[in-house]
Write a structure and sequence with these properties.
Blueprint lengths: L1 H12 L47 H4 L3 H9 L6 H10 L12 H8 L3 H13 L14 H21 L3 H17 L3 H11 L8 H13 L3 H14 L4 H7 L6 H5 L5 H14 L5 H10 L4 H24 L17 H28 L8 H14 L3 H14 L6 H15 L13 H6 L4 H13 L3 H9 L7 H5 L23 H8 L2 H13 L6 H6 L3 H17 L3 H11 L1 H8 L41 H16 L6 H14 L25 H6 L1 H13 L3 H27 L6 H10 L1 H9 L1 H9 L4 H6 L3
Helix pairs in contact: 3-4, 6-8, 7-8, 8-9, 8-10, 9-10, 10-11, 11-12, 11-14, 14-15, 14-16, 15-16, 16-17, 16-18, 17-18, 18-19, 18-20, 19-20, 20-22, 22-23, 23-26, 26-28, 28-29, 29-31, 31-32, 32-34, 34-35, 35-37, 35-38, 37-38
Length: 786
Amino acid sequence: MQKLTIFTAILLSNFLFACGFYPYGEDVRFHFLNPDYFSYEKYSSFYYSSLSFGDTSYYSDSKVFDAQNEELWRKYCNNKVSVEDITEVLWNYGFSDINSNSSNLFIQYLFKIKDTEAIDYLRFAKNCEFFNTWQEDPWERNQNTVKTNRSVVLNKAITLANTAKRPEIRKRYAFLAIRLAFYNNDMKQINSMYGKYFSVDRSDDIIDVWALYFKAIAEKDLVLQNVYFANVFAKCPEKRFVSWQYFNSKIPEQNVLNYAKTDAEKANILLVYGIYNSGKNLDNLKQIYAHNPNAEGLGFLLSREINKLEDWIYTPYYTLFDPSIVLSGYAMKDDSESESVQKVLKRSEFDREYAAEMLEFINSVDFSKVNNQDFWKFAKAELLLMTKNYKESLQQISALEKSLAVDSKIRENLDQIKTLNLFADQIYGNAIIPEVTKEIIIKNKNDKRFIFALGRELEYLGNTDDAALLYSSLDRPESENDYFINNFVYYKSLKNRNQTYSDYFVDSFNYLDAVYTPEQLLSFIKKAHSIEGKTDLFSQNFKLRKSSFQSLYDLLGTKYMRQDKLNVALNIFQKVGVEYYNDKYSLWENDKNEYSYSDVIFDENPFYNLKYTPDFIPEKEQFRLNKISITQKLIEYKNKADNSKEKDRDYYYFLVANCYYNMSQYGNVWMMKRYFKGSRNFSIRDDNEEFNSSNLAKFYYGKAFENARTDKFRSLCLRMQGRCENNKLDFEQEKRENYFYPSDNYVDERFEKNAYYQKLKKDYPDQYEDMISGCEFFTSYFQARR
């Protein structure tokens, strides 16, 4: 029952996180250094990450498998058998498989030399495997029986340890006894067997380290226990995670160091404390280097520090998000967005200073003394990039490339930081995609964060064309592997202001929509067209599809609509073609089953219909609604309204005003200016004020008022201007209060502030009650235009 209770508690706890999504942690973390490429796989549970540490042995044998025991057996067999054959026996064979008829060369060898002691040990070890766990029965029955049987096996292991002739086999039996005693919770027996067969001052092989692990568990002195676990952590990858779990990091570091007998032990202790430190760890690295410069763990801790710096520098620099692990001093999300972004960038520059301190340390290191020199050289190259010493970094990379094998995995990381150097080391306004980097970019085209970083570098340097080209390549459909390795990017902009509906974008189109000017977008389209016919490999990999061009032209026309450049917008829309708009924005002649709900549909004719208002204008013209037809009609009606010889100028100005109103967030063709609309409509788009306030509609209702000939129609025009003014007042209030829920008091106050309603009340008292009471009189008042 206790297992079921624990399981239920864990299951229920998962529901606490069912909130709205916002990118954070590994969703946004940027890193280019892959510790796997530098032979640190056996530390994989402790790679720098915003996620909790986790034992990877359940997921990837290749990352945690350690062949020390297999090598020890190979040495026992005078190197006459392979590690693979030994592994097969140790991991896959059962008791009955160990016989003279076995095809396994390890078993054959032992039978051939008549080593019955080793054969009997292997059989006995296989019989012990059943007892090497806390719980054999998932329903927790017969536990006392299991403990009794385990005790029998334990006593037999003690006897066999005492009688074994070969010291190697004797020690193995002793270890089996210690492990069985642990699962029987017999700490006294652990200490007894360990004291008889092992010593904390000697670690000749992996059996000594395994035994030390259980000795550490049985140790009552918590400080001394930390020393033992630190030594196990350093020497035994398969016990690394559990040793870290047992290690008590709350004990002052110096107290534990005082118990260390050698410099190597001190380095081991400092290694574990260093892993617990999620902040700056340079002093720890310096101490380990002073005690044991050749320690493998020193290089791994340096790789963690490089990954930290990548997160602290690159994540905010490229994404404008906080680092995945937000330490004290970082901007938090409750700041206004503009302030938060600026704080994030400042902190990024601050952490470049820490990178400089790390670089100073590496420059003081004697590379001939350290383990894994290639990694230290790589770390130096990347720290030079972080500190913007691009030319020195490239020199370091060039020297390292000469010493690496052609198929070295290190080259993948090296190529990426080499490319970042070449991109960043350019002059603003003259930045390009260097020819020498194109092969590397193609090779890494599926690494979205790397490609995104290159785009950011170009954008920062003024080359928005090539930046957009790289960004567009990131919009390919996600694969299962993308989810597995967090291969996503999220866009932010320095233009973000407080109260935007969403301060990030999930694809390049929405980013270009919000951030690029029409001129920048047009320039990018021309750039994209310029590589269409090229046959070189880079152009073939990064050219746009026809549908992408259509979407970009649609966006360009939409941007001109936002600027009220109607003729330019119409020209762009016509370039896309009417079929595109009919498919994208219209239900006319479409089977409903074929309708994709990802598309946006125009609701009603924007010249004659208003949302939440009964129809009051007869539709003299019916036409298929799309961006082309609406823009054409808007130009046509504006021309008629502006024509001093037109007798129905007031009528056409009113229709024009209706269309502008309907192109705001309150209308039925808001998609003329937006691609999505949320519950809050603050955005960094240039027409944000117009979209939320209906100022152009108010202006043209005013023009209709100026040309009106009857009081009833004038009062209707004022009523509509008042509606637009209410929208503006609401928007301004929402900007002040962030989230705005109008109260009865506010409604009254807004009415008093609305100059158009006040003018209606003062100048047209006979029509005032009709106009304010509701929309029922709109039809008769519109018909009274003449």
